[in-house]
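Hi there,

I know you've been waiting on this one. I reran it after we fixed the sequence typo, so this is the corrected version. Both the input and the resulting structure follow.
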Amino acid sequence: KSRGTVTDPDFAARDTNPLCGDVIAFTGRVKDRKIAELKHDGHGCAISQAAAELLAEQLEGKPVDAVRTFGKGDLLKLLNIDISPVRMKCALLGLKVLKLAAYQHLGETLSQEEESL
């Protein structure tokens, strides 16, 4: 549903998980400070791709600022499965990429904690 690329996006970011080979990109359009359209693209394990889809579904239509407060615990609750320490990077890659994209749009940078997601 949310897979693809937004044409003429207001924000975009892409990152990889070199340990697993996951690649995730987010593109989005903002209207009236809300995420009017949000798409993800990339490839990788089921966990990384499911997490990206859930993030897009959860945050599309919300204020861009909502990305700032959406955290690791929120995403893990959405995934609703046990994530082993080895697979945690897979689960959190999309969140890091989405925060990077939204923060660039807001003129901000990731915190040290967010950078290590």
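Quick highlight: The longest strand covers residues 22-31.

Best,
R. S.
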